[in-house]
Amino acid sequence: MNAIIYVFSGTGNTMRICSLYQEEFERQGVATTLYPVRSDMSDLPDPNAFDHVGFAYPIHAFNAPKIMLTLAKKLKPVSGKAFFILKSSGEPLKINNVSSLRFVGILKKKGYVFKSEYHYVMPYNMIFRHTDREAVKMWETAKALCPIEAREVLCGAEHKLPRVFLGRLFAWLLRIEQIAMRVNGRFFRVKADKCVLCRKCEKACPVGNIRIDEKGRFSFGKNCLMCARCSFFCPTDAFKIGILNGWRVNGAYPLEGGESKELPTQENKHEWYCKKAYARYFAAAKEKIEKHSGDL
Ligand SMILES: Cc1cc2nc3c(=O)[nH]c(=O)nc-3n(C[C@H](O)[C@H](O)[C@H](O)COP(=O)(O)O)c2cc1C
Ligand code: SF4
Ligand code: SF4
User: Fold this and answer.
1) In this model, does residue 165 exceed pLDDT 90?
2) What is the number of the ligand closest to the CA of 212?
3) Atom of ligand 3 lying closest to residue 210 CA
């Protein structure tokens, strides 16, 4: 048996979730490929070659990132192949459920059968910085939950997230974000006094949107996905990300414990934000984890 997960991950959260699935799948004897989605899709693996097919992405403005919609359009048609979706997002609001509607719609027309979807809360890479403690709690929860849900996927269990009233309209309206981010991406700037020209950002951009010339001058193209990878991982915090600069989050979270990043930690002034929704998410996760604590 084998499996593939086509994964887009801006700053690593979704890829981490997929790695947990890969670990559990392989423990169950299913050889698993994680295919990182980039703008160059010339080497797209054929889903027909896999017993289990999954797609994973971070939620962007309550939608799947545009690159995932492009992927869905490019994939080969199949005849009744089941698929699952894994998504990560910074807050657990139910409205995030609408993020898969368009993606699923495209795949259904190509003969894919939507079987299940799972949503994991992971630290924000945009909007505001969670505290290290919150981030670790999210990650520890995902680590306990993913193996259970990975086994559900392998069993072919149905798992659909609740519908949202007027969700399709809401998701459609918010897809304006995809155009807005392409425009905003042209207004990215790098502070020359901070930049050490390590070129990490240029190499990491999944759509090749950053160019640095031989004189160290930056230019930004029109294909930005606003995945946040460049600004999040810049080692000197040199980025300004256009009109969204107030929402910029910089530096990896210490998910496996230890000290926070070397850069000054951004303050979290949002301790009341979605407090009830987070509490519900962690309570439901705890209940499921406890229920399955005796499983293999
Ligand atoms: C442009 C953008 C839009 C986002 N929109 C949402 C959102 O609508 N809801 C949400 O809960 N999180 C949102 N987030 C946060 C990410 O979904 C979250 O941090 C995710 O785990 C990042 O995954 P990644 O590291 O795989 O990119 C957004 C992040 C970015 C960069
Ligand atoms: S990652 Fe930061 S420091 Fe490195 S080249 Fe890009 S802007 Fe400059
Ligand atoms: S420019 Fe930065 S935010 Fe935009 S797609 Fe490239 S890495 Fe992502």
Assistant:
1) no
2) 2
3) 1
Contact between 233 and 252 under an 8 Å Cβ cutoff? The reply is yes
Alpha carbon of 47 to ligand 3 centroid (Å): 27
Q: What is the pLDDT of residue 264?
A: 59
Q: Is any atom of ligand 2 closer than 6 Å to the C-beta of 205?
A: no
* CA 115/CA 53 separation, integer angstroms: 10
User: Rounded distance, CA 228 to CA 249, Å?
Assistant: 8
Distance CA 163, CA 174 (A): 17
| Closest ligand 1 atom number to CA of residue 57 | 26
Q: Where in the chain is the domain with CATH 3.40.50.360?
A: 2-167+277-291
Convert the pLDDT of each residue in 6-60 to its tens digit. Answer: 999 999 999 999 999 999 999 999 999 999 999 999 999 999 999 999 999 999 9
Q: What's the gap in Å between 98 CA and the centre of ligand 1?
A: 14
Is the domain spanning 2-167+277-291 CATH 3.40.50.360? The answer is yes
Residue given tokens 């809401």 in the structure block? 170
Report domain 175-247's class. Answer: alpha beta
Q: Provide mean pLDDT across the span 288-293.
A: 92
Residue 105 pLDDT > 80: yes
Q: Which residues line ligand 3 (CB under 6 A)?
A: 185, 205-207, 209-210, 224-230
